[in-house]
């Protein structure tokens, strides 16, 4: 059991409230998992300043401030950083690939939780309520966000086992369920040279989707391919810089509900996460059908 | 109720709670309604108060601001009426006996699961496993029900105004399921003896579920079920489905499958 919540803002007037709305959804979702939590925030100008790339890491060998000093010395330009508890956030006016390489060189052993120009992934182990405070989630702004609370089943309670999984630029996946054949697919991807950060089944799904996006598929196509290849139980929420998508397995026993208004699209494991959203009483609310990809573009 | 609950008693005109027993309303009088606001008191307090009612109690209750809370009005066994003013969460009216529960909103997973008797009416959509394993009573869903509606039903009657999702009436054992819209894939998979009536399209039938003849007794029971649910659909427009009974006994040709 895990909890999923996501919000895709259509009315730009709501962008200032993204974090507070997402926090209320995440804290309700805590009842479906208290091992770990994480959020992916798109378009927060303090986390991902305009004109910069942003890389987030966990398991850093040094503090966020020391990490930023090392990156400054690496010549990626003036570095800004955020200490978000188990996650450190670094932004610099350099191409994403350059900043990513600098982070890997400067912070040996650190695990990247996101990279790109519009997404920051903050995650860690612990109670979702406490983590939301560490993430300063209530103050976050932006055009979409995803959140996850974890009850660990397929891998240990570690920060690298926490969701969201972001393994391609500005991509993000959260998962409720368990993939049955992830070890087989992991070996196939490893044979292609793909490197994994964790033992977690969801990371295999995220790597699979990232590979197909990199090969030119759109999100809808990548998720249809995932449905063909993966066995097991899954409700997935997948976001990219410009899209927000939901898919469930053929049995669809893991819950999911979608609500849509002119101002926003929201997805959650349960209705009660949505109960505080403005205008929810007149939203179009439905449960996604099995193996149907629902995607929204901005 | 004692210290368990903090509801207030209000005098509410019967017309505002849609009292079908029109005697009091016709006389222009009022009835007592116990109001329980789930933003100021817990669902546990509500359920404890409902469970503490004396035998035969037929009081009326209104639950405000349910906001998708789980287990509202679960485990009732008195002939009370509970009106839930908004969306309910998981297992609403689960294990119900004797009570009437009206949900003026959507219902989460497992509404009226394992109901024994009484009536549960969802004036909206229902999530998965509506009426799961229920032995008796009537579950009415005005909107759509999602996957596994009536899974392992054991005698309940379920009337759905809209569509039902995949694997509805899976392993159904007894009772009647009426679907006024369409049914999803694998309807009635591994069904034992429930009777299924579907007005619209069936995406696919599950193992051992087949279309069957509508005889006069089926039209009569369907007419009665639709009437009980307050619907005016034409019974003649429905198709009956049920068990082909080919899975009842072990067939030696299948021995290699074991």
From TrEMBL, chain A:
Its EC number is 2.6.1.16. InterPro entries: GATase_2_dom (IPR017932), Ntn_hydrolases_N (IPR029055). It comes from the Bacteria. Signal peptide: none annotated. Residues 2-298 form the Glutamine amidotransferase type-2 domain. One of its GO terms (molecular function) is glutamine-fructose-6-phosphate transaminase (isomerizing) activity. It catalyses: D-fructose 6-phosphate + L-glutamine = D-glucosamine 6-phosphate + L-glutamate. Keywords: Glutamine amidotransferase, Transferase. PANTHER family: GLUCOSAMINE--FRUCTOSE-6-PHOSPHATE AMINOTRANSFERASE, ISOMERIZING (PTHR10937). This is glutamine--fructose-6-phosphate transaminase (isomerizing). The lineage of its organism: Bacteria, Bacillati, Actinomycetota, Actinomycetes, Kineosporiales.
TrEMBL record, chain B:
Residues 1-20 are annotated as: Disordered. GO terms for molecular function: oxidoreductase activity. SUPFAM superfamilies: Alpha subunit of glutamate synthase, C-terminal domain (SSF69336). InterPro entries: Glu_synth_asu_C_sf, Glu_synth_lsu_3. PANTHER family: TUNGSTEN FORMYLMETHANOFURAN DEHYDROGENASE, SUBUNIT C (FWDC) (PTHR39673), TUNGSTEN-CONTAINING FORMYLMETHANOFURAN DEHYDROGENASE 2 SUBUNIT C (PTHR39673:SF5). This is N-methylglutamate synthase subunit B.
């Amino acid at each position: 059991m895990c909890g999923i919540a996501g919000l895709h803002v259509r009315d730009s007037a709501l962008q200032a409230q993204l974090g507070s709305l997402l926090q209320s959804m995440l804290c309700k979702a805590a009842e479906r998992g208290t091992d770990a939590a994480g959020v992916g925030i798109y378009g927060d100008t303090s986390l991902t300043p305009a004109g910069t790339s942003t890389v987030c890491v966990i398991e850093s060998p040094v503090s966020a401030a020391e990490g930023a000093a090392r990156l400054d010395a690496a010549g990626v330009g003036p570095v800004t950083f955020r200490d978000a508890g188990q996650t450190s956030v670094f932004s610099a006016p350099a191409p994403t690939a350059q900043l990513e390489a600098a982070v890997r060189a400067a912070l040996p052993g650190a695990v990247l939780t996101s990279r790109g120009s519009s997404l920051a992934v903050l995650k860690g182990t612990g109670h979702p309520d406490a983590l939301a405070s560490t993430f300063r989630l209530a103050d976050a702004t932006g055009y979409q966000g995803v959140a996850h609370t974890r009850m660990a089943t397929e891998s240990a309670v570690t920060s690298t086992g926490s969701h969201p999984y972001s393994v391609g630029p500005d991509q993000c996946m959260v998962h409720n369920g368990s993939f049955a054949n992830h070890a087989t697919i992991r070996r196939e991807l490893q044979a292609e040279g793909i490197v994994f950060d964790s033992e977690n089944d969801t990371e295999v799904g995220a790597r699979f989707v990232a590979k197909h996006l990199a090969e030119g598929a759109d999100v809808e196509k990548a998720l249809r391919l995932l449905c063909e290849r993966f066995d097991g139980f899954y409700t997935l929420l997948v976001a990219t810089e410009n899209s927000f998508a939901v898919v469930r397995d053929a049995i669809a026993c893991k819950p999911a509900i979608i609500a849509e208004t002119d101002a926003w699209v929201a997805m959650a494991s349960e209705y009660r996460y949505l109960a505080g959203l403005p205008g929810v009483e007149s939203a179009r609310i439905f449960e996604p059908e099995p193996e149907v990809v629902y995607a929204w573009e901005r | 109720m004692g210290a368990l609950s903090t509801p207030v008693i209000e005098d509410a005109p019967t017309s505002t709670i849609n009292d079908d027993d029109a005697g009091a309303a016709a006389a222009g009088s009022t009835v007592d309604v116990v109001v329980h606001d789930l933003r100021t008191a817990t669902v546990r307090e509500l359920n404890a108060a409902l469970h503490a009612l004396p035998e035969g109690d037929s009081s009326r209750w209104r639950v405000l601001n349910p906001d998708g809370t789980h287990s509202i009005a679960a485990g009732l066994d008195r002939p009370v009426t509970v009106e839930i003013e908004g969306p309910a969460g998981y297992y609403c009216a689960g294990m119900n006996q004797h009570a009437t529960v009206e949900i003026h909103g959507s219902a989460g997973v497992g509404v009226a699961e394992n109901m024994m008797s009484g009536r549960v009416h969802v004036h909206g959509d229902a999530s998965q496993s509506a009426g799961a394993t229920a032995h008796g009573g009537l579950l009415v869903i005005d909107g759509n029900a999602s996957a596994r509606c009536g899974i392992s039903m054991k005698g309940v009657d379920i009337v759905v105004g809209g569509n039902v999702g995949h694997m509805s009436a899976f392993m159904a054992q007894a009772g009647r399921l009426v679907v006024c819209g369409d049914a999803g894939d694998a309807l009635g998979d591994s069904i034992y003896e429930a009777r299924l009536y579907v007005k619209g399209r069936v995406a696919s039938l599950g193992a051992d579920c087949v279309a069957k003849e509508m005889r006069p007794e089926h039209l009569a029971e369907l007419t009665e079920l639709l009437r009980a649910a307050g619907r005016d659909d034409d019974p003649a427009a429905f198709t009956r489905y049920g068990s082909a009974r080919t899975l009842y006994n072990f067939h030696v040709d299948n021995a290699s499958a074991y």
